Write a sequence for this structure.
């Protein structure tokens, strides 16, 4: 798993289409010099496995058709930038939140507003996923762990600090651009456990049943 703390933004060198998927080559940051075959790396929020065969200075990944369709990786071109994060080591610091690298959906940016050195970023999220989001909770956008600043019926916003804006691809986004979204997996587990433990016809009824009221 990952924590949503991006370690580097790197350029895509090549995207080679192949039967049933693609082969993705990304420039290797200096801090990724010891990445080994089979290691998991988050690429803009998508968990991919490093594979052999890349030239020196490159990271290579197999990307399945499902991943290409479900995420923004399907639209990558040479020269595009992606966020990179290595998997959390046992005993490492949980600086962000639990991020699996399993993208739920892509969604367009609705706004990007500057206030001094800080930024407010807005996205539109389908109700099937927004039910897992709470104000001041966590969400991953392009693999970046962010705190939900506000939550409305059709839009949620996050506050982006200067360092995050500079060090990740978020600083290169514009309204209308698609970003990868992963909601908090813990909320999904809670919903599933409640559904199985307290059969009911609606979420409100489940909650009342659970509270005994």
């Amino acid at each position: 798993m990952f924590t949503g703390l991006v370690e580097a933004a790197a350029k895509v060198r090549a995207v080679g289409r192949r039967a049933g998927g693609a082969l993705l080559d990304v420039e290797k940051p200096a801090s990724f010099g010891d990445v080994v075959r089979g290691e998991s790396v988050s690429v803009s929020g998508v968990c991919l496995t490093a594979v052999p065969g890349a030239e020196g200075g490159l990271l290579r990944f197999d990307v399945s058709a499902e991943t290409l369709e479900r995420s923004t990786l399907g639209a990558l071109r040479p020269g595009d930038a992606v966020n990179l994060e290595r998997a959390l080591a046992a005993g490492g610091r949980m600086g962000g939140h639990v991020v699996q690298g399993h993208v739920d959906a892509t969604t367009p940016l609705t706004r990007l507003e500057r206030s001094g050195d800080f930024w407010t970023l807005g996205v539109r999220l389908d109700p099937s996923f927004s039910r897992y989001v709470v104000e001041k909770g966590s969400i991953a956008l392009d693999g970046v762990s962010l705190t939900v600043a506000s939550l409305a019926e059709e839009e949620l916003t996050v506050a982006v600090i200067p360092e995050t804006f500079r060090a990740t691809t978020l600083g290169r986004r514009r309204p209308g651009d698609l970003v990868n979204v992963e909601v908090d997996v813990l909320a999904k587990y809670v919903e599933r456990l409640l559904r199985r433990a307290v059969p009911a016809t609606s979420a409100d009824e489940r909650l009342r049943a659970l509270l005994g009221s």
Observations:
- Residues 138 and 147 are 5 Å apart (CA to CA).
